[in-house]
Amino acid sequence: MKTVIFLSFTLITFSPNLFGQVSIDNRRLLNESFWSEGSVYGSRDAYTKLASRNPSDKESASISYAEKLMANNKEIKVILLIDNGDVVFEKYNDPVVYDSMLHGYSVTKTITSFAIGAAICKKIIDLNEKLGNTNPIFIKTGLENATVKNLLMMASGTTSADADSNFKIFQNIIDDYHFNEKSIIEASVKSTILQPRKGIFKNFQPGEIFDYKNSDTAILGFLLNYKTNLKGSDFVYENVLLNAGINGKVSLAEDKNKVFFGAYGARMMAHDWGRLAVWSREKIKEDSCMGNYLKEATKTQISNKEKRFARWFNGYGYQIWTENSWSKNSYWALGYGGQKIAWNHSNDKIMVAFSTSENWHPEAARLYELWSTENSK
Questions:
Q1: pTM of the full structure
Q2: Which backbone phi and psi does 370 adopt, to 5 degrees?
Q3: How far apart, in whole angstroms, are the C-alpha atoms of residue 164 and residue 84?
Q4: Sign (positive/negative) of CA torsion 297, 302, 307, 312?
Q5: Helix 107-121 vs helix 214-228: angle between axes, to the nearest 10 degrees?
Q6: Which of 24, 72, 253, 279 has the CB geometry, 3.0–4.6 Å to 28, for a possible disulfide?
Q7: In terms of residue numbers, what domain contains 347?
């Protein structure tokens, strides 16, 4: 039985297992002005494609499988298969084309993690700093003892989210947002969202249990604004997206105070999503602060024991899903409605996919397992 709920900036349909059978429509994937205001960077004129090459004979199985998926499921709108920075397979289903602006939904969370890493490397943010020592707004909210690392791990210790990863208070956020009365952070800390989550015998402490929810990431977006003395979106663009070589048009959602909404709202074109994925894969190879951060971000920091969300993933890093039970040795960024970026710990095979339905994740995992294990030579 499906339910419809109005939540932060969006009206969506979901089933009880988020990242299971949810669907969106084309407008929600493509319309860059729908749901939120924000900052826009770059330009369509500066958008370029990644380099490409023809597939090898040894890659034929994954290419054939990707072709069949796109032909048989029109809800899959984009698949890019990338190897060592080159696009080897690229296909679109109507109405998406190569320069459509694509909403990443919760793939934005992974961008937020990259930005937090950049801020840590600039010594602007401390991974182990408690929020109560960062800003008095967090005192007596249930978050005062949570660290930045706890938030990155979705382990703030605060109240569990509803089945859509949000809270009923977000109904008020969208109403107040449009009337320019409240920011995301104001609505959050003045509500019951940030109360300790109760266990059987005691409250859960920060870092103790994984609990996927948008509020933990929204607070990371707030920290980017507060700690960097920039608009969070500016920091993300200048320290992550530009560094990744992204010059095409980018849209990043914000609230009325220009606080970057790190939980979702990033929009870019397909090859720029691929460019971001390639950049992060190159950085992780470096013996550098950012490289070391990404090594930690992409390995399991906490177990997904309760399986309330994305139950085929057994672990979570820093705003990144790990230990996919169907596609071994991979780590993933996931977004509502079927948005996916998949990387492999052992090679440079990347998959970027956007869709309007979550119903094909088993097939996506099979495709990526094929793609990431096929020899390119």
A1: 0.89
A2: -60, -50
A3: 35
A4: positive
A5: 30
A6: 24
A7: 3-373
